[in-house]
Amino acid sequence: MIEDPRPVVLLLPVGSTEPHGPHSPLATDPIISAEMCLRVARALRDDPDVQVSILPEIGYGVTRFTKAWPGAIHIEEETLLALLVDICVSLARQGLGHVVIVNNHFEPEHIKTLHRAMDEAERRTGNVVGYLDLTRKRRAEQLTDEVREGGSHAGRYETSIVLAARPGLVDEQVMAALEPMPKNLAAEIAHGAKDFVAMGLPKAYNGTPADATVDEGRQSLVTLTDMLTQQVRDLAAGTGGRDTPGLYIRV
Ligand SMILES: [Zn+2]
């Protein structure tokens, strides 16, 4: 890697560890992030313009919405911020200036913290930190109905991706019996909702996880991989690579 003249882009998968219904693993979000990273690294393995490596994941995040259930492991905003900035500064000192944060946990305070960390890392290193913001309208529009209709927490979209990425980690018997819980998470969050119980989601999921399929998960992963691959290219070329906040499909 060191002798290779192509610019190096490092992918950093992040949190969180939290309940995802009675059927999908606590690590659902980092599993999705890690799978995206793996697929992007594979897609760009022999690319003439850029090389990609994957950093060890940060499997935790700012996690308050699922605090009613065991398994939610919250870290404070300042903890996450310091960790992300320290990692970017340490890498920059070694001449590794291209980092992309790959995130699939969408609590507002978590996303805000990621952006604060990207700003601070850029201030201290002079390097833009890459980010694919899936709460942007133009990103969500390329994904599934459940995402377009306000997001998925352990719903059909997220569960399908786990089925495709880590077969065996979804309890498919439990999944098949789950009743639909239609809920526009984006709208609830925009109106100030602070946790899933208050939103009327008593089992820590929304949407229709019983309809999840491996095929849908594979298709979503193709779309996510294409979007992230472009962010990596743009970051390496100095032409972009960091989305501004999508404010829950409002922009
Ligand atoms: Zn999730």
UniProtKB/TrEMBL annotation:
Record carries keyword Metal-binding: yes
PANTHER family: 2-AMINO-5-FORMYLAMINO-6-RIBOSYLAMINOPYRIMIDIN-4(3H)-ONE 5'-MONOPHOSPHATE DEFORMYLASE, 3-DEHYDRO-SCYLLO-INOSOSE HYDROLASE
Pfam families: Creatininase
Keywords from the named record: Hydrolase, Metal-binding, Zinc
Known cofactor(s): Zn(2+)
Family: Belongs to the creatininase superfamily.
GO BP terms in the entry: riboflavin biosynthetic process
Name by which UniProt lists this protein: Mycofactocin system creatinine amidohydrolase family protein MftE
Gene coding for it: mftE_1
Organism: Capillimicrobium parvum
Gene Ontology MF terms in the entry: hydrolase activity, acting on carbon-nitrogen (but not peptide) bonds, in linear amides; metal ion binding
Entries under InterPro entries matching the protein: Creatininase-like_sf, Creatininase/forma_Hydrolase
Enzyme class: hydrolase
EC number: 3.5.-.-
